[in-house]
Amino acid sequence: MKTLYPYVVYPGTCKAALEFYHTCLGGTIELMQRYEDSPLEAPKEHKDRIFNARFCVDDTVIMASDDFPPDSVVRPGTNMSLFLVLDTPTEQRDAFEKLAEGGTITMPLTDSFGMLSDKFGIQWMVVCE
Predict the structure, then answer these.
(1) How many CB atoms lie within 10 A of CB 125?
(2) In this structure, how many other beta carbons lie within 10 angstroms of the beta carbon of residue 76?
(3) What is the pTM for the complete model shown?
């Protein structure tokens, strides 16, 4: 069996984003490796940026990192979306409202679907089955 993980690259906000998602959704940040601890040489001012991270919620895994300094070409949220499926309307509403804090709702939440861009510019599709 093959596994596909969404991989999100941030412009220096990876740690803050994953901590925010942990607050909204629970789960575990299983890995948070900084450039300083990686095999790559990064400028000293970027040593605390994230080289590789792994965030897990139940059976879902999101891999993430910050862009490689100094070559920043990342435009948050424009290259992917995260598709979040929840079991109950209450879970859906709670997650949607938390993720929307500081962000922009692009399609208001209905009984089964809503879209938003969070405060880090990442696009989310939130559904309830």
Answers:
(1) 15
(2) 20
(3) 0.79
